[in-house]
Design a protein that fits this description.
Blueprint (H helix, E strand, L loop, with lengths): L1 H20 L1 E9 L9 E4 L5 E3 L5 E6 L4 E7 L6 E6 L5 E6 L15 E5 L9 H5 L8 H5 L24 E5 L2 E3 L21 E7 L13 E7 L7 E7 L2 E9 L5 E11 L1 H6 L6 E17 L5 E18 L7 E22 L2 E20 L6 E20 L3 E18 L2 E21 L2 E12 L4 E13 L4 E12 L3 H4 L8 E13 L3 E17 L5 E17 L6 E15 L15 E11 L4 E10 L3 E2 L12 E2 L3 E14 L2 E9 L10 E4 L6 E4 L7 E9 L4 H6 L2
Parallel strand pairs: 1-7, 9-12
Antiparallel strand pairs: 1-4, 2-3, 2-5, 5-6, 8-11, 9-10, 11-12, 13-14, 13-38, 14-15, 15-16, 16-17, 17-18, 18-19, 19-20, 20-21, 21-22, 22-23, 23-24, 24-25, 25-26, 26-27, 27-28, 28-29, 29-30, 30-31, 31-34, 32-33, 34-35, 35-38, 36-37
């Protein structure tokens, strides 16, 4: 009893002292329109002293702290607010919070570009989209051929976009140019892409109007951003009818670093023993590949990455001679390719970031051709190497606007030999660029920039201005416009024999409308492209070529209307003509179809954990050269229409705790006849169709992953 009385007495005596030691903080929270904001969290930073605002926006709380402190104010949907206050001189704080516009509601530059990054709402193709697209063969470029703007040119290497050749599309990994992104192939049998889709967390396919960061692509850019640290350590094993692979990714104990190695072996010999090809192989196609990667977080915001690979290829065919009936032509190829890429990114403070990289690549093609028992053999050897360095600084301006500036340097070596004749050159290429994304409002953004390039082998400098504008009409829809000049050096085989040519040039004009919701994507885009200084080889090698391309494209994707089903439809109309190489005047080139159409369908059956996919592609006939026609009929004949239907079935399961996928894939299951063009003998009396070496390909494989179960990824991707 006495203790209780003493405690009460103690409290009565010292309570006024405690109250005198506390400071009362009061105020009111409103938005930019002076509307009261209830439920706002207000606190002294790094303490538990604080309160929430009432319905009328007012707040009040007390604290024992003295002197200078920081008051922190937060509310979901609004920009965080901090302000220094002096508790020795208490006052009423009237605070205005500015609305934080979600990235989903902010307009983005989209003219000419398809974003495929997990961080962007405008996602079109993720890695799982690529590997599950029937007929694509897990090849990035083949999957992109189902998007508008691309051509079904399966008889030659490269990604052909909007009336441009395959050479006019460039591939970049973390900002650095990849000189040889495709495996070397045989005549009329192009090689597939060298990269696995799962190497990349983000993909931008730009069919025109792309950023000033990137150069030397006259028509298009495929921009790939490599993965950071893996979620956990894992290993993988793959076995198929054409080869095997094994790999490991190891995450460090502190989860700040990782390394990975992979090896794969491909040999089509056993497959061709069962499924006969059009042309008999002289050497069964064989590829040995290895790769390695290293990742390390250098700080909370910094990342160092290394990626490198090496490929060794050997293949060859016998081909009935068109020039010498009864004889066989031999074409044999050995290829060695090495690519390395080292990049570093870091935040520098005060809104600045740095992105830098070094890269070295080397590609060697040894080609042996011979008309057996008729002519002397021919030996061709081409060696290309590229060393490059790049740095870019980015400055954040406000919450959304940014400024980018940087430069790059490339040292390229091109050595070519035709029997005893040699044609070599080196090029020192340098470029600087600057570009700003300026948000006038969260719904209106402009991008203005330019790029200056110099090539020592051309001994010329160019300036390429680029401008884009985008306006967001509502939460889901926006319109975009883009203009830009794009330059590119002529191909290596022309510069070897005639350096000091000029840059080829294309000017792009693009207008697009898109609507992206949680259920579907709708995109319509129109473009016009004007070509200047294209390479002509007749009557002499020069930059006298011209051309244009114009058209309209449609893309529709729906992955929510039907449960467990995803599909997309793309259509392209292309009107293009060019006068280049040996062309006598401007005509529709032999790689361009006027109408192209694709439908991709995917369906997942949860009860049997099986994934079904189908891809149908169509394009109208392409022009081909018939030397028996007069000049005024040049390229007036066309091939038959192109049709292809691919199917794939993937069964997902687990084998001894390993996530396992069994895959069955069939290309051209309808066995449609596909004619890409015609080849004529020198005397014009004989011709042959250019058709696929294997009209229908059946692929069976099993892939096991220890450590990461991607089953839910497949389901979430639908």
């Amino acid at each position: 009893m006495w203790r209780k009385i003493n405690l009460n007495l103690f409290a009565l005596i010292f309570l006024p002292v405690c109250l005198m030691a506390q400071q009362k903080i009061t105020g009111k929270i409103t938005d930019s329109k002076k509307k009261p904001l209830p439920g706002v969290n207000i606190a002294i930073k790094d303490t538990y002293d604080g309160a929430s605002s009432a319905a009328d926006g007012t707040f009040s709380f007390t604290t024992d702290l003295k002197g200078e402190q920081i008051i922190s104010v937060t509310l979901n949907g609004y920009r965080p607010f901090e302000q220094k206050i002096n508790l020795n001189n208490p006052q009423v704080y009237n605070i205005v919070l500015k609305e934080l516009i979600s990235q989903l509601n902010v307009v983005t530059i989209s003219a000419g570009s398809f974003e495929a990054s997990d961080e962007r709402k405008g996602t079109v193709l993720k890695p799982l989209d690529i590997v599950s697209t029937a007929g694509a063969g897990a090849d990035i470029v083949n999957a992109l051929k189902t998007l508008p703007g691309t051509q079904q040119t399966n008889d030659r290497e490269g990604l052909f976009v909007r009336g441009g050749t395959g050479y006019e599309t460039q591939t970049f990994i973390d900002g650095l140019l990849v000189r040889n992104p495709f495996y070397s192939g045989l005549p009329d049998m192009p090689g597939r892409g060298r990269f696995s889709p799962f190497l990349f967390k983000g993909t931008t396919f730009s069919s025109g109007g792309y950023s000033a960061q990137y150069g030397q692509g006259l028509s298009s850019a495929l921009i790939l951003e490599s993965q950071d640290l893996p979620e956990r350590s894992s290993s993988s094993v793959g076995v198929s009818v054409i080869g095997a692979s094994v790999g490991v990714d190891e995450l460090s104990k502190d989860k700040k670093g990782s390394y990975g190695v992979e090896a794969d072996y491909t040999n089509l010999g056993p497959y061709l023993d069962v499924v006969k090809s059009k042309f008999k192989p002289s050497v069964n196609p064989e590829i040995i590949g290895t790769s390695a990667n290293f990742r390390r977080k250098t700080s909370s915001t910094g990342m160092l990455k290394f990626y490198g690979y090496g490929n060794w290829t050997h293949m060859g065919t016998y081909h009935p001679s068109l020039e010498y009936p009864g004889y066989n032509e031999l074409f044999e190829l050995r290829n060695q390719n090495v690519y390395t890429n080292l990049t570093y990114k870091e935040r520098l403070g005060k809104g600045w970031r740095i992105s830098s990289g070094l890269s070295f690549s080397s590609n060697t093609d040894d080609i042996h051709t011979d008309t057996l028992e008729k002519t002397a053999p021919t030996k061709i050897k081409n060696l290309s190497s590229l060393t490059q360095a790049r740095v870019m600084f980015t400055k954040s301006i406000g919450y959304y606007s940014s400024l980018r500036m940087g430069g790059e340097y490339q040292y390229g070596v091109e050595n070519g030999a035709f029997n005893s004749y040699h044609a070599n050159y080196t090029d020192n290429y340098s470029a600087v660029f600057a570009e700003g994304d300026i948000y006038l409002t969260p719904q209106l953004v402009g991008r203005v920039g330019g790029r200056v390039e110099h090539s020592s082998v051309l001994a010329k400098t160019n300036f390429a201005p680029r401008v884009s504008l985008a306006y967001k009409m509502d939460a889901y829809s926006q319109v975009s416009l883009a203009y830009g000049d794009y330059y590119q050096k002529p191909e290596q085989q022309y510069l070897r024999f005639k350096p000091n040519m000029d840059y080829m040039k294309a000017t792009h004009y693009i207008a697009s409308v898109q609507r992206i919701t949680g259920n579907y994507t709708l995109r319509v885009e129109a473009f016009y492209k004007k070509y200047h200084n294209l390479v002509k080889t007749s009557p002499d090698t020069s930059n006298g070529g011209t051309g244009y391309a114009k058209g309209i494209e449609l893309f529709w994707r729906d992955h929510k209307t039907f449960k467990n089903m995803d599909y997309w439809i793309s259509y392209s109309y292309l009107d293009t003509k060019r006068n280049y190489l040996t062309y006598p005047y401007e005509v529709q080139p032999d790689f361009a179809a006027k109408h192209t159409f694709s439908v991709v369908y995917k369906y997942y059956v949860p009860s049997i954990t099986t994934f079904f996919g189908a891809t149908y592609s169509f394009s109208t006939g392409r022009p081909y050269y018939n030397p028996n026609l007069p000049v005024n009929k040049f390229m007036t004949q066309k091939t038959m229409d192109y049709n292809s239907l691919g199917l794939t079935v993937s069964y997902l399961t687990s084998i001894k705790k390993a996530f396992t996928v069994f895959v069955l894939s069939v290309s051209n299951i309808g066995n449609f006849k596909q004619v890409y063009g015609y080849r004529y003998s020198a005397d014009k009396l004989r011709r042959e169709e250019i058709t696929p070496n294997i009209p229908r390909f059946v692929y069976v494989g099993m892939f096991m992953n220890f450590g990461i179960d991607r089953r839910q990824d497949v389901i979430n991707n639908l």
